[in-house]
Amino acid sequence: MNVLLTRRFRFSASHRYWVPAWSEEKNLQVFGPTTRDHGHNYTVFVTLSGPVDPVTGMVVNLSDVRRWVDPIIEELDHRRLDRDIPFFRDHLPTTENIARYLWDRIASLLPEGLQLAGVRVVEGEDLMASVGVAPFMDSARFSFERPLQPGVMMLGRRYRFSASHAMRVKEWDEEKNLQVYGKCSRPGGHGHDYILEVYIAGEVDPETGQLEDVRNLDQAVQRVLEMVDHRRLDQDVPYFRDRVASSENLLLFFYGELSKTLSHLAGLRLWETENNVVELWNR
After folding, report:
1. pTM here?
2. Residue 257's Cα: distance from chain center in Å?
3. Domain boundaries of the chain, sorted by first residue
4. Would the CATH topology of 1-151 be identical to that of 157-283?
5. What does the pLDDT look like over 202-222, one tens digit per residue?
6. What is the rounded distance in angstroms from the CA atom of residue 94 to the CA atom of residue 80?
7. CATH fold of 157-283, please?
């Protein structure tokens, strides 16, 4: 039986998106402000899979993991990726291509019996790309793993909105609503700062280095978020007039709406609080 072990790494770098064969107009049309030199703080999660050694009690010594990966991270740290790293002179330094680059470099270093299960690159706080296992945005939040098909890339984006609700079944009396939902049933309602994570999966465009234009993704998600942001869900949103405004139903609402425009939608994760999260994945 294999166990998954994840180690986090960090680096900072700058880059720009530019396809030399394209005109300036087309580059600006496709990549927008990312055609200008800019930088990010990156977080990299490397997930390894292997059996637990009966003597050491470890899948792998973390000192070895650092010995393999630290030099690769150091090559990227405080660099202009598209100029300083040969790979990115021919491949745009997108989050997706950085994840693929790290996957190939790290996989070639591992000893027999130890497998690379996933590489996740988080750009800033709200954008990530993952190869191998399903992503989590940062180590402060729960990790939910889901294997992907070989070669499939996953792109994740985090969004925030605020809404209020009361959890009540209209046909129930006050006593039963209170019994089932507790203080969440109070008629005056209550609110949350929600976090919605949207994941799409597929093949990266070899020319743009992107799985999806993030601006298109943002536009599709914002259209749906406008329906619920700064709303009283159980009163202002038609979907919840006949449904309890629970996180589970809110997740189903998002999935139904986003599926209309995002053909490669892989899954959603909705945080109601830091302690309460629901998710839905395509299987």
Report:
1. 0.83
2. 19
3. 1-151, 157-283
4. yes
5. 989 999 999 989 999 999 999
6. 13
7. Tetrahydropterin Synthase; Chain A (3.30.479)
